[in-house]
Amino acid sequence: MRILHTSDWHVGKVLKGRSRISEQIAALHAVVQIAKAEQPDLIIVAGDLFDVAAPSPEATKVVTRALSALRATGAEVLAIAGNHDNGAALDALRSWADAAGIILRGRVSEHPADHIVTGTTKGGERWSCVALPFLSQRYAVRALEMFELTEAEAQATYADHLARLMSRLAAEAFTDPGAVNLLTAHLTVVGGTMGGGERDAHCILGYAVPSSVFPSNAHYVALGHLHRAQLLPGACPVRYSGSPIAVDFGEEENTPSVTIVEVTAQTSARARTVPLPAATPLRTLRGTLEDLAAQAEANNADDAWLRVYVAEPPRAGLREQVQELYPRALEIRVDPSVLPDAATRTARPQRTGRSAPQLFSDYLTHRGHEDPATKNLFERLYQEVSG
After folding, report:
1. Is the separation of the CB atoms in 12 and 59 below 8 Å?
2. Of residues 110 and 255, which shows the higher confidence score?
3. Residue 210 and residue 99 share a domain
4. What is the pLDDT of residue 384?
5. E-strand spans in the chain?
6. Same domain, 153 and 205
7. Is the pTM here over 0.85, yes or no?
8. Is residue 322 assigned to a domain?
9. Where does the signal peptide begin and end (predicted)?
10. pLDDT tens-digit readout, 60-95
11. CA distance 255 to 273
12. 325 and 252: one domain?
């Protein structure tokens, strides 16, 4: 059996106000081309199809067309909701998905059978997959109401709830010794490396679970949520496919790819990554204005979207100077290394008996903004208003 594993499309993602829909379309087109070439039996999309819970009509059209194109390759297509998706809205598309032959799961249902998907490949291999959309801490206990819980079980941790839920579902799904046992979910596994653009609140603290939550008799676990492709240690193969496009700054080092898995009921899963053509690269530049000017002359960032850290004290017009050097700079910040440290900024100046321009000057000094032009501009504005 051959599986194509992808996730974290984040269609509709806007980068610092800049639409990237054309880049996202190109990345998904590349995924479809790989599916045509590899001819998988099953394609798993492990969550975060969209970037926001209320996607635009254009983003919805891109996702539905991509799913339809993947289905047109002859593979079964199974997609689940991630933490960025609106599970209820995805479930509202299930009538369309069912008609298109696409398996779509948006929310955790009270019916266990809704999360067990089975099929048979063209070669006659049987498979069974536990499909678990993203589950928030708030609804973790409610999801387990499909089974009877003791009071102690109801008060357990998020990881315990997920382990119990997967164990119960696997006990019902993995009953055929001649079938390939699969599980797909959207969550954070302890030890996984974040890609750089994930939503921190759903990746750390109580949301990080050990790989021991997955049933040991699964042949392959297809995960979404972390944007960097990686294999994690566990009793069964546990893998993130990564995002097909660098979602945000901080993901410059990620290699966009999909994962191709070959597995039988009697053999271990063998996975390989298939890289995708790079979209517009994201790059981070650092240095003084002089350093940045020298880099601009080298023309080494003409094709990229840029984040620039300027290693100079804040001053009026600094942003405009950087923007003139790099018109494709979407984010410009003062490098934290040139700002006063926290200890210096803790002591606040005396306010009593001081004029507004003096207070503003003290504020700029306190924040590391020693810029006479800004102080003079404030004084002029203050005099106009007060006069």
Report:
1. yes
2. 255
3. yes
4. 82
5. 2-6, 14-15, 18-19, 42-46, 76-80, 102-105, 116-120, 126-132, 179-186, 188-189, 208-209, 220-224, 230-232, 238-240, 257-262, 270-275, 282-287, 305-310, 329-334
6. yes
7. no
8. yes
9. none
10. 999 999 999 999 999 999 999 999 999 999 999 999
11. 10
12. no
Coil, helix or strand for 254?
coil
| CB neighbour list of residue 315: distance below 8 Å, 6 or more residues apart | 369, 371, 373, 374
In this structure, what token pair is assigned to residue 256? 């966009």
Residue 351 or 157, more confident: 157
CA distance 215 to 235: 8
Query: What is the domain range of residue 312?
Result: 281-339
Backbone angles phi, psi at 369, to 5 degrees: -105, 70
Which structure tokens are listed for 167? 């164990």
Same domain, 385 and 328: no
Q: Closest Cα to residue 166, out of 129, 120, 208, 126? A: 129
pLDDT by residue (tens digit) across 151-195?
445 446 788 888 888 999 999 999 999 999 999 999 999 988 886
Give the end-to-end CA distance of the chain in Å, rounded to a whole number.
80
Count of structural domains within the chain: 3
> In the 8-state DSSP scheme, what is residue 176?
-
Residue with tokens 């009953």: 175
Q: Are residues 129 and 201 in the same domain?
A: yes
Instruction: Please state, in angstroms and rounded to a whole number, the distance separating the CA atoms of residues 305 and 324.
Output: 14
Q: Which residues contact 283 (CB under 8 A, 6 or more apart)?
A: 252, 301, 304, 305, 306, 307
H/E segment holding residue 197: none
Name residue, tokens 């059209």: 61
252 with 289, same domain? no
Which of 317, 85, 104, 331 is CA-nearest to residue 199?
A: 85
Instruction: Look at residue 7 and tell me whether its pLDDT is greater than 80.
Output: yes
Q: Is 297 helix (H, G, I), strand (E, B) or coil?
A: helix
